[in-house]
């Protein structure tokens, strides 16, 4: 007879889930034991936040769900931050969370917790399977929910006695129904807006940021004169030479307001209306300009690509040639290393078909400008804002795309949230180059401290964002986990290290020692400068923003 764990694994495989990122404990031992008779690929993580972030990165690139195996409520809790990012990224994922045996829960053992409550924070679908006879059916339903049509996170809670229980029968998935396209009346109304001649911006999101969606939007823009923008933190953005260029909305609300100023219409295509990341005293949270009408083409349950193609035809743009990004590279930088020079070197050396996991924070503000004309590549960003995503997402992307070079650009503070990912990258011998932008500070928090209108910070407040004492030595940390690592404090050292890493398959780390981009007078002047820029005439403000590369 088949036990529950074996049936669960077979059902996952029948549904096309072939990769699982795991950090197991006692309650999951029967699942682990069943792996020997399964072709499921399992990737061990030393921390649950690495497992959940890696499953996110895998889903972004493979465009199908990975599974995670987590230990009880505490293990799920350790993975919640990157599950939050995955939820905001709207990627498919199936979490298998082990639980105490059903008859054991009444004793309130040391690790007993309310797993369902933890799971609901980040999961659309949550179920505790109480019977081995229901396990395969529940597993198939979890995968079906994750796949969609609205891709999302499903969490299946697996009591230990259900896992070891006999009598389970694996099942195969039911055929999927193609999602509907946008209502024809909605398409025609938006087409009318685009043809009206009134100033219109198109904001692209999740599913229309790969080549097909970008080309469709570029055709519409060429035909109608509309501007094309994309989300602040896209799940996956294809970009580079030969693809349509798309301008990302700025993180700073003041700069996003500059980008959106003057538009009479905002067309959302698989995106939400823009809001500021945080609330700030005396500033708007909702960033759509006053008097601007918002039009939504598709819901998350509808076919985004089919719908934007419908819109292309409705505006008569199906034969329009889209404007494409020309090929260009910056020169290699020289002199003392800075965050912008790291970005410049990346633009000069980035291999074709690379994947960038971008969590560079303030040191990476020039990345988009310097890589715009680089060979075609994908950018994966911090969708939910919970730092500690960059390394795990790079790990998962490399598992999904083993033949593509992966570059993780990560701040020093955020790297330490999930530094255990380096060990898994080495264990799996993944083609990941990690660049730590080491400014020895939580620099973004220094900026936010100035922006929120808090009282003038003193040394005690400033110390909370200082990572200089003791300094983090990422070369030693990487070496301790078996990874080749170098330190660079000049542009020439960094250029050589990056070129060597890109030309040699396997894991590499570069500890890039850079100053904070916003410090001293520059830091103090930033809030005032953003405010002044927002009040300038729109064309001038947009020109200055573009010139600064922000």
Strand content: 15-25%
Using only CA atoms, what is the Rg? Answer: 24 Å
Can you count the helices?
23
Structural class estimated from helices and strands: alpha/beta
Query: Assembly type of the shown chains?
Result: single chain
Q: N- to C-terminal separation?
A: 62 Å
CATH topology of the largest domain, which one? Rossmann fold
User: Residue share in helices?
Assistant: 40-55%
Strand order of the largest sheet: 9-14-13-15-16-18-17
Number-wise, the strands total 18
Mean pLDDT: 92
CATH architecture name of the largest domain: 3-Layer(aba) Sandwich
Structural domains: how many: 3
CATH top level assignment of the largest domain: Alpha Beta
Shape: globular
Q: Unreliable runs, pLDDT <50, ≥5 residues?
A: none
For the report, how would you describe the main beta sheet? 7 strands, mixed
Let me know the CATH homologous superfamily of the largest domain.
Answer: Thiamin diphosphate (ThDP)-binding fold, Pyr/PP domains
